Amino acid sequence: EPKAEVLHWWTSGGEAKSVAVLQKEFADNGGTWTDMPVAGGGGDAAMTALRARVLSGNAPTAVQLKGPAIQEWYEEGVLADISSVAEAEGWADVLPASIAAHMKCEGSWCAAPVNVHRVDWIWANADVLEANGIEMPTTWEDFNAAADKLQAAGIIPLAHGGQAWQDATVFEAVALGILGPDGFRKAFVDLDEATLTSPEMVAVFDQMRKMRGYVDPNFPGRDWNLATAMVMNGEAAFQIMGDWAKGEFLAAGKAPGEDFLCASVPGEGFLYNVDSFAMFDVDGDDNKAGQELLAKLIVGPSFQKVFNLNKGSIPARTDVALDEFDSCAELSAADMQASSDGGSLLPSYAHGMALRGAQSGAITDVVTQHFNSDMSSEEAVKQLAAAVANSL
Amino acid sequence: MTDFSMTPAHSRQQTRWGKIALRWLLYLILGVFAVYYLMPLFVMVTTSLKSLEEIRTGNLVALPRDVTLDAWKTAWSGACTGIQCDGVRPYFWNSVLIAVPAVAISTLLGALNGYVVAHWRFRGANVIFALMLFGCFIPFQVVLLPMARLLGLMGIAGTIPGLIFVHVIYGLGFTTLFFRNYYVTIPAELTKAAKVDGAGFLRIFWSIFLPLSLPIIVVTVIWQFTQIWNDFLFGVSFSQAGTQPITVALNNIVNSTTGVKEYNVDMAAAIIAALPTLLVYVVAGKYFIRGLTAGSVKG
Amino acid sequence: MAPILDIKNLTKNYGSVEILKDINVAIDQGDFLVLVGPSGCGKSTLLNCIAGLEPISGGSLHIGGQDMTDVSPKDRDIAMVFQSYALYPTMSVAKNITFGMKVRGVDAATQASKLATVAKQLQIEKLLDRRPGQLSGGQRQRVAMGRALVRDPKLFLFDEPLSNLDAKLRVEMRTEIKELHQRLGASMVYVTHDQIEAMTLATKIVVMKGGVIQQVGTPSEIYNRPANLFVADFMGNPAMNLIPAKARSDAAGTRIEIARRDSAPIVLTDSQNRNLPEDVVLGVRPEDIAEPGARAAANAQEADCLVDIVEPAGADTYVVMQLGGKHVTARLHAETDATPGKAQRLAFDLGKVSYFAPDTGQRLN
Amino acid sequence: MAPILDIKNLTKNYGSVEILKDINVAIDQGDFLVLVGPSGCGKSTLLNCIAGLEPISGGSLHIGGQDMTDVSPKDRDIAMVFQSYALYPTMSVAKNITFGMKVRGVDAATQASKLATVAKQLQIEKLLDRRPGQLSGGQRQRVAMGRALVRDPKLFLFDEPLSNLDAKLRVEMRTEIKELHQRLGASMVYVTHDQIEAMTLATKIVVMKGGVIQQVGTPSEIYNRPANLFVADFMGNPAMNLIPAKARSDAAGTRIEIARRDSAPIVLTDSQNRNLPEDVVLGVRPEDIAEPGARAAANAQEADCLVDIVEPAGADTYVVMQLGGKHVTARLHAETDATPGKAQRLAFDLGKVSYFAPDTGQRLN
Amino acid sequence: MSKWIEDHLPKVVLAPSFIAVLVFVYGFLIWTAWVSLTRSRLLPKYDIEGVIQYKRLFAAPRWDVAMNNLFLFGALFIVISMVLGLLLAILLDQNIRTEGAIRTIYLYPMALSMIVTGTAWKWILNPGLGIEAMVRSWGFENFRFDWLVNPDMAIYTIVLAAIWQSSGFVMALFLAGLRSVDTEIIRAAQVDGIPTWRVYSAIIIPSMAPIFLSAFIVLAHLAIKSFDLVIALTGGGPGFATDLPATYMYAMAFSRGDIGQAASSAMIMMGVVFTIVVPYLYSELRAKND
Ligand SMILES: Nc1ncnc2c1ncn2[C@@H]1O[C@H](COP(=O)(O)OP(=O)(O)OP(=O)(O)O)[C@@H](O)[C@H]1O
Ligand SMILES: Nc1ncnc2c1ncn2[C@@H]1O[C@H](COP(=O)(O)OP(=O)(O)OP(=O)(O)O)[C@@H](O)[C@H]1O
Ligand SMILES: [Mg+2]
Ligand SMILES: [Mg+2]
Does the beta-carbon distance from D54 to B7 stay under 8 Å? Predict the structure, then answer.
């Protein structure tokens, strides 16, 4: 009888409902699900627990893991191989190539993707934009002009929460816009030093300095959802945040396209944040059976649909019908397809998709330090290169 | 007690007014600080009594317009801490199962150790005591990983006994210190009398020292109980599904990153999680001060 | 019969510090040995060594003829009473007394009957259910005695059992202990630094100083023939007057010259002691300087002395003068008319004086 | 001249409990007033009222002729010495003594000279730099005295200043205080529960019990003519023998019959006191029962008594007998041959006896 | 045999605790020292590589900030907690009628974990939501209290909350100390004409030196271990302006998978602890030998 202990950090109401879908399917297929939720710090606490569990030789069956962390854990030799399931289910055919790459460790499948969050979203209050005669910006110049106008009208142009990961989220959105997909890849996937110290990178920080001017003074420490609330109630006009923000709007009874608007941030490309489950090496046939069943269900079309309807993201597999999804999700799915074809489907560095923890952490340190002080862009670029070098 | 207010002075009238003014000032200062200390609790309680709607639209530190207990109900038995939406209730019992034995064992061991260090000194006892004391100061993050390894080797990883074990180990320094400082104030003659009476090491401890230890037991229990009950780091690292303490559940409710936040439920859950320790302080606080006077303060 | 307690060449060190040096004491069945000496001289340490509460560093220790040097306290057949009483604070009086028996596994009936006997003896029947905290000092003292008595041991050890009581109670309890000793015929070792207690209770006194025994003897030996200046000064209250004097011995006896403040020296003639060196310290007890004719003293000699202070103490009046450069106290009748600043005629009883060498402090006669 | 301290109808309550009841005392410049009484009788409370450390509930209090009832302690021109010495633990001896002056803004030169004078007087010059923790009990006591002396106050208050010292030191310090008093001619109020201290120091004694004054008088009045059974029993050590007796008065005097254990009653004849009721309590001090002929007593009468206990105390020997159903103590010479269990002929000095009514306890003669 | 057990029972009783401490404190310290010399990332590795982790540590600006914060925060937290605790203890010692209740109010923060109260504090200190907004709504439009969002001041909000949590306990310690001062000394001072404030400043407070020491040790150890507080209140921000060594270490070990780096920072932290605690232990044990 399949068994699985699942470590994850989806604990809020909407998220929990989404996981419950999986648990139900798992149970319907005769499995026993043991839930091990650890929230906090974008998975930091869960990672603490995971490390302790692994060291004590008591690893959970499945763990919510993503990005290069999957490969890192694999290198520690603690992950299980689920290639048999993946091949039987034909994952390679239904997953975009760049996403599939994240799920593979040295050629074999070691993780199962759940969803795709788009990170480079810009959200706006429709009424505020209308009242001020502003369109959704499509270039950073537009954005700056709109922000200046809003500021003059006494509206906070950008709702933002001053936490390191939120700073990084805005930063990578800006960077994608200014560096372009290739520049972004060189800078934040390949850690190419020339790109990191290029004048374009200086321009990115210049734009960040501008963004800093568009947020209200009370932003530090603010939770992202409070920032979303500022957009909702018209205090602020825009927010740059992943598509989980949509959940807040919907929970408050707001309708996409009417009350709030969603658009990708100015510039080309698509930054994804893919949640996935990695399977750890565990003893016992029941556990192994659980792993296989779980992997199969996760990537299965029904779960991908129901889960993402709840979570606000879009399915990882490309063959799920999107009729029940909202307009933002549809836009997201279309963009993903397009960018996947155009080679501009990129991993989010801010959400741990692009780099190892130590590297992305080092970059974030500089970004947040720059955003929260009056550091010059040149200095920031210098520090960025130094920090990246020190993190290797 | 240091009471200066009774001193008669030259002019009865003048001093009386001066005295009354001084008293008022005194109460005023004390009151201001009481506000400082109560403020966070006030915010928590009022928030927990508001509806989510009111929180979203209103001032976070204002009094609730419509008082509702829904958040409390949800927090206790309905909030989701993962896929289970049973509130903090099951975790509450986990915490009880962890805290009660851990407090009892570490207190008992601390008492025994303190008894040895204070009354049965042998060569090197001081050094041992010093080493144990130093253990109080180690940052817990440092020990997480090697501890995890050892717990695994011992086969109690992820279990409640494992958590109890960890809490006992890292509580020992303080409990020993408390008891040792208390027991040094008990005259050595008592031990001598009992020895002449024919009682041995354990008998003396059990029949004579333990019954005398109530004040310091109270101090130690309060200290250990708050430490263990409020612990998050060990709780999150050394538990697995089914053995997580309430702080982890609370963290799961409060600290979800990408979901919708229900602050009223968060606060209600937080207060529920804090109730046992609050209760301990309110009920036994006075013995706490008394116990401190009796022993651990002696320097 | 072997001595009930026999201590031979006992030494005791704490680390490198020698606390007790070559102690030799023996007492017989029924003796009442009192250890006296100033604070810190090692009395308690010696008692603890006897009890086995402290290991000894050298020498041997026999109780009732058996070598007890390495035996643990509970097997030495002793009982001990402490200065702070050391009652078990959380137990009732009855439990305090029976605790030792309980530990030893004595059956309940015996416990009860022994408790009853002892309680009756000490008149504490009504207190049996109380906690020590609810007792007065004297009552606690009685309970502590009860705890010792109920053991019926070979040897009783007392460490300053009365020093926490007030003066009045101390005198009463002293009498009770004396009575108890006479009635039981038990052997006792008793530590005190109150020399009146030592004198009234002891059959044998050991005077200690700095871990060394100064003198062993009966109370009257110690009081009347102190072995050195230390013992002379220590025993007796008010203390023995120790007056620097010049002695000139010849066949008839010795002429003793004592300096006076404002007039010629007093000259006394001692016909019993001869062959004294020139410089001596003359030791005279206050009660041996009295009004002329107050006592039928064989060897009384009179002199006028200028009185400095008069201290009426009820039963007696003490007057203080200056002789040989020292305060000298004389004990007069309560009704004396001595007045400060006036001369007073006093009789010195030379029959009981002591002489000491000023340098070594040893007794000369 | 007005009395230096005059207390009229003073009462003191704690809540509803009356601790001091209608206290009236006055002393003159240079008097040494001692308050004695058992523990808890209100001595310290009374002293604190005098010092102004406790407000009084009724009556008035004058110091040096001024009404001080509501004046704060620092303005009463008093100095006080405490049982625990109450030295400021973190200050050196010198600072302890000068701190009060410093606070009052006395200039440094005056401080230094006063400190020097006092230090010399008390012989603590060498201790001035030490902390209280580094001093012995007696030295602390001296420093506490120094702190009081340097104030040069109208009135000195002492609360059991010697009770934490050991017996020997207590006697020495007692003499020093007495000397100090004589030299300074200062007025002092002194609390103790040691009645020897009271007798030797006081020019006037107040005996208290339960917040009520029992007797006020000179030491000899209190000792020789106690006003009631309480005072008789309380003052004197060993205590006065209080023997139930039958009195039969006629013109010639009074026949006193005292029961004996094993033989016919002793019959004594008192020619001075007449008109006594039949049941009396006869009060005789131990020193008034002595060997026949030991003292030239005017009114001595002899009888044989069975001795129970003999307590040699060095200077004297006490023997305890049973008379009138009570333990009775007699003070004999140190050299007495009295032995327990044997009869001893004793002389009762009836010139100094007291009679009390058994029911009210009041003095009859 | 039974005599041997009897004689050695105290050692036998102490032994398990002693062994536990040896292994679980000192053993782990050695382990950490070892790991700090390796290139461990996600999980510990044991190949010694030299002091490279320490070099990285000292090259990281964030670590500088964390250490500076520790000293600033530690000094302020300890000094203010002691002063405030002492002040409150003295005030409470004046025969206050409601003492029990007030004491409980001052003491209760000790019972709460920061996970719980961090959010409340965050709101209170947030200029837009808390005190600043409240005072402004009373009409004081220019009132500013924006420490939380000011990188230069944010560390003081940590101090504020830390004091809130611990000063009550310090107050309890001092209150207990005041209660154990001999009343006769205070009376002597009154007779000596010494004004109340001097009685406290010159006599009572100096005599409580041992309590100051205990309080210092407790507070110092809280300061060094402070972690939840920062996480809950500022998360180390704005930027990393409020990072402390403990949070730095945690971040390295658990969110960045850089265990070697975490171990080296832990060793530096232990060094700080050592310099504070060892003199204290030394004095503790010497006093006992007197
Ligand atoms: N455990 C110990 N370690 C080192 N020295 C000690 C110890 N116990 C006692 N001493 C020292 O031994 C000496 C004798 O102490 P002891 O208690 O026997 O004196 P004492 O005569 O009983 O004094 P007191 O009359 O004050 O009770 C003292 O100088 C004391 O300092
Ligand atoms: N603050 C107080 N509140 C209530 N009762 C008190 C207080 N202080 C003293 N008493 C009571 O007043 C009575 C007298 O106390 P006081 O200290 O004056 O006695 P004392 O004669 O000095 O005794 P001792 O010889 O033991 O010092 C005692 O019964 C005591 O319990
Ligand atoms: Mg002793
Ligand atoms: Mg008193």
Answer: no
State whether D84 and E182 contact (CB < 8 Å).
yes
pLDDT digits (tens, 9 = 90+) for B220-263: 898 899 889 988 888 888 888 788 888 888 887 776 655 566 77
Residue from the list E42, E237, E256 with its beta carbon closest to the beta carbon of A163: E237
- Cβ-based neighbours of E193, under 8 Å, separated by 6 or more: D73, D74, D75, D100, D103, D104
Q: E94: which 2 tokens?
A: 């004046």
Nearest CA-CA distance, residue B138 and chain E, Å:
7
Q: How much is the CA Rg of chain D, to the nearest whole Å? A: 24
**Residues A82-98: pLDDT tens digits?**
888 888 888 888 888 88
Query: Which ligand is nearest the CA of C19, by number?
Result: 1
| Pocket flag, ligand 1, residue C45 (CB < 6 Å) | yes
Q: Check CB contact of B172 with chain C, cutoff 8 Å.
A: no
Q: Is the pLDDT of residue B112 over 90?
A: yes
CATH topology identical between C5-234 and C241-356: no
How buried is A93 (Cβ within 10 angstroms: 0-12 exposed, 13-18 middle, 19+ buried)? exposed
Query: Which domains, ranges and CATH numbers included, belong to chain B?
Result: 8-68 (no CATH), 89-294 (1.10.3720.10)
Range C241-356 has CATH code 2.60.40.290: no
Tens of pLDDT, residues D22-45: 999 999 999 999 999 888 889 999
Pocket of ligand 2 (CB under 6 A): D 14, 19, 37, 39-45, 193
Residue ranges of domains in chain E: 61-289
D329: closest chain C residue by CA: C175
Residue written as token pair 């086995």: C52
Cα distance between residue D326 and residue D304, in whole Å? 16
For E213, phi then psi, to 5°, come to -65, -50
Per-residue confidence (pLDDT) for residue C363, from 0 to 100:
93
Please report the DSSP string for A355-381 in residue order. Answer: S-HHHHHHHHHHHHHHHTS---HHHHH
How many residues does the structure list for chain C?
A: 365
* pTM of the predicted protein model: 0.84
- Tell which CATH classification among 3.40.50.1000, 2.60.130.10, 1.10.3720.10, 3.30.870.10 matches the domain E61-289: 1.10.3720.10
Say whether B54 sits in a helix, a strand or coil: helix
Q: What is the distance between the alpha carbons of residues A173 and A175, in angstroms, rounded to a whole number?
A: 5
CB contact under 8 A, B8 and D72: yes
Task: Please give the structure tokens belonging to residue A77.
Answer: 């030799």
pLDDT at residue B5 above 50?
no
Q: Which chains touch A (3 or more CB pairs under 8 A)?
A: B, E
**Residue among A283, A309, A306 nearest A28 (CA):** A306
Nearest CA to ligand 1 atom 1: C14
Average pLDDT score over residue span E178-190? 85
Nearest-neighbour CA in chain B from E262: distance (Å): 9
Chain C residues with CB-CB distance to D318 below 8 A: 200
Nearest Cβ partner for C103 among B190, B198, B212: B198
pLDDT-derived band of residue D357, with 50, 70 and 90 as boundaries? very high
Q: Where are the domains of chain C?
A: 5-234, 241-356
**Which CATH superfamily hosts domain C5-234?**
P-loop containing nucleotide triphosphate hydrolases (3.40.50.300)
Q: How far off is chain C from B203, nearest CA to CA, in Å?
A: 8
Angle, in degrees to the nearest 10, between helices A377-390 and E52-59: 170
A218:E122 CB<8 A: no
Q: How far is the CA of C44 from the centre of ligand 1 (A)?
A: 7
Ligand 4 centroid from CA D31, angstroms: 21
pLDDT above 70 (res C326)? yes
Both structure tokens of A196: 């990191």
pLDDT at D293: 72
